[in-house]
Amino acid sequence: MKQSVFFRNFMVTTGMFVMCFLVFGFTMFLMGRAFLVREKQENLYATAGEVVRFAEAMHTEEELGSWELRMNLAAIAQSTGDHILICDPAGQVVSSSDRNVISPYIGRQMPDSVMEQLRLDGSYEAMTNLDGFYDGMYYVVAEPIAGRDGGTAGYVFANYAGSGFFNAWGGFMMTFIFVAAGVLGLAIIFEYANDRRLARPLNEMAEAAHRFARGDYSVRVTPYEDEDEIGTLTQAFNTMADSLERNESRRREFIANVSHELRTPMTAISGFADGILDGTIPPAEEKKYLQTISSETKRLGRLVRSMLDMSRLQDGDPARREQTFDLGETVVQTLLSFEERVDAKGMSVDLNMPEDALRVKGDVDALTRVVYNLIDNAIKFADEGTELAVSVWKENGKAYTAVQDTGQTIPREELPLIFDRFHKADRSRSRDREGVGLGLYMVRQILAAHDQDIFVTSENGVTVFTFTLALAENGRAAGK
Length: 480
Known about the structure:
With 480 residues, this protein is α+β, with helices and mostly antiparallel strands.
């Protein structure tokens, strides 16, 4: 059974939490114990020092065992929780912090090993039962009592029961464990919820990708509310989905348009050819219909060539073929190739060019195709005997080219559509048998690849196409 990324991430994170908790807990265990030991050690030394000052105020050994001193020891022991003993120089207990009149400790002898170490080191500190002196373990601190003659009048033992020490330390650790376990539980819950929140858009994207693979491009991922990497990813995914849906729509539209454009000439070719073969068309009419078949065949060829040109245009990168050339010279040379068609329609040409060379940059072959398509389109739809106007100028750091013809006005609602693939305006349906509806589309694509614009206006029969090009460095300087 496959594990989800969410499950693996949750288990890894939980394991890290537990590991950190154990390391932290063990560290707190050691630090807490050391802290309590150090604190109790300081308290015991403070207690012993306080008792030593009381005892040194006594002048005789009998006074070290006096009832007054015992009462003071009892008061100190009650406030500190310690058990206090005073021994004579030989190690015999002469006073105790017990409140009982008869103390079970008075008269008892401290172990010789303890007394020997106390005499050598001047102090004693250990966790011990004093060789059976106590029934349980005590933390013991001992300090000498200085006599008036400069010798040692006795010793003070300040003792704290180990059970009390471990009980205090255990209570601290239990509190820590409960608090830490609660924090760990909350952290696991929050991590689980956060992982689920992070996994949701990823799961949605995975499901959307599967639906994309089945051809459904309508699905979108729910926008992520945070502006982090996941939010950026969901936005990018939805943007990609929008692009895929648009491309799929365009693909279907393209296939439908191509099918329509191919069906018309192919139907004509097939129908006329069958009519000639089966004798439906009389021999006297065969030449006329063969001319129609030839015309439709050439139209199919132009359609195929235009589609190949469009494909190369979409796959190419004009920036790699960027050149610097004279725009005016390109326009004049292109216009000369239409001389016969202009004369055939009895049209006149009005050419407006700058006096100096206007140098622009771009793919010269592709941009020549732009000029060619626009002039071809203008001549095709211009009325006979009208004027074809071509103008080139520079303005605001750009080169402008305008191609104007006089004919039928393009309806306002058609203007935004004339650059679409296979679109033919109403004015061309009965007059453009030679076109395939890709010329203006290619013009726009070429200019868009050069980061340039094209505009069209059509009023009172006058239609003007105007496009921009980037000036070369010297051309831009000359235009200032």
